[in-house]
Amino acid sequence: MEQTLIQKNTSRFDTIPELPADTFTAPLAKPDHVGLDWLEPKQRVYTAEEHHIWDDLFARQMDILPGRAATAFIEGLKRLDLGKGGVPDFGEMSEELSAITGWEVVPVPMLIPDHVFFWHLANRRFPAGNFIRTRETFDYIQEPDVFHDVFGHVPLLTDPVFADYMEAYGRAGWKALKYNRLKALSALYWYTVEFGLINEADGIKSYGAGILSGPTEAVFAVEAKSPNRIHLDVDRVVRTDYVISDLQPTYFVIDSFEELFAMTVDRDFNDLYESLDPGFTYANSAVLPQDKVYHKGTQEYALRGGAASLAEPV
User: Fold this and answer.
1) What percent of the chain is modeled with pLDDT above 70?
2) What is the number of domains present in the chain?
3) Using one digit for the tens of pLDDT, what is the confidence trace for 160-176?
4) In terms of CB atoms within 10 Å, which of 2, 25, 149, 151 comes out highest?
5) Could you give the CA distance from residue 52 to residue 54 in angstroms, rounded to a whole number?
6) Domain that holds residue 57
7) Whole-angstrom Cα distance, residue 111 to residue 38?
């Protein structure tokens, strides 16, 4: 259906979409050794120390995530055996993943342009950074590396419904480009794929990769008093600003991946994009009268100045 997020005509996703001249995207310089698809010729060979960094990052997160991470994420980690030692081999991982949901993991040198990222997702390819952080950047790295991309994102691609949502999101990129609404679509990705929460029988858990791949936010997102936790509404989320380099003032919660998929597939995005202002309507800490609020945050962490002030993430 043309008016929905997911497109039924798959032929349009065979080639990389053209980027309209008037569409704003981040200015990224393509390395000479990659083509227009931005794919590396092969996954790099990691040093022994880099494999140790993966193992240490993995161990740290697994000390924190049980009871805080979505069940589907924990099950995906086990199915793909991502803790067997060292940076996973993309080829082996892709064979396993393809047999489960038809996805594969492909290496890219860095953050890639939006329209190329959409194209890969639309064809069930997840681009993963072909590098890993150093000991000096162990706690935080600004650009997503192989640990964030593989540990944080790939386990949920074993869930059939979430895997379909990711493909649908990639295909939605064509429409966002047409309407010059990449920022709005990015907000949806940010508050679901990167920083989403989900209701489970024993409480709210995290499924967003930005939460699951970092030790501080893994606790902050589900337990701290500072942030808001609000039920996801697509129209509201695409109008909501977000924080890139600090803990989130607000997290959005879903009841299931089936609900997330239905919210996006059944929404008329032509109408939505036409109704949007160029900028965001709502602050990232806002609580609106129509929100279904699970927890109204104190915003203490943000009000004390956030990470720059060394405020406690409470």
Assistant:
1) 96
2) 1
3) 999 999 999 999 888 88
4) 151
5) 5
6) 36-309
7) 10
Is residue 27 domain-resident?
no
% of the chain beyond a pLDDT of 90: 80
Q: Which of 277 and 196 is assigned the larger pLDDT?
A: 196
In this structure, is residue 30 part of a structural domain? no
pLDDT bucket at 1, cuts 50 / 70 / 90: very low
Count CA within 13 A, CB hemisphere, residue 66.
6
The pTM is what? 0.93
Cβ(221)–Cβ(243) under 8 Å? no
8 in a domain, yes or no?
no
User: pLDDT digits over 220-274, tens only?
Assistant: 999 999 999 999 999 999 999 999 999 999 999 999 999 999 999 888 888 899 9
For residues 9 and 1, is the Cβ–Cβ distance under 8 A? Answer: no
- 198 Cβ neighbours under 8 A, 6+ residues apart: 70, 204, 205, 206, 207, 253, 254, 255, 256, 257
As given in the structure block, the two tokens for residue 166 are 């990711």
The CATH number linked to 68 is 1.10.800.10
Q: What is the dihedral of CA 278, 123, 30, 43, to 10 degrees?
A: 140
Say if residues 240 and 279 touch (Cβ distance below 8 Å).
no
